[in-house]
Amino acid sequence: MTFGASVNACVLPPGRSPPLPRPQKAPSPSYALGYYDRDNAFYKEWDGIARDRETFQTWLKGNVFEKGAA
Description:
With 70 residues, the chain is an all-alpha fold.
């Protein structure tokens, strides 16, 4: 059986789920299967952040916990 979808697609039967709007730049900074470009500047910065636990904890506090994302 062929669905005509890409390898990474999830095929749902019609009427089984309501349509969802696609958030703009939702996977940023990562790329998403050709929809967005990868944010290489972020990944270069992230490499330094992720190497040190204290730096990572500081980043989490400022970018996640204090912004109400977690």
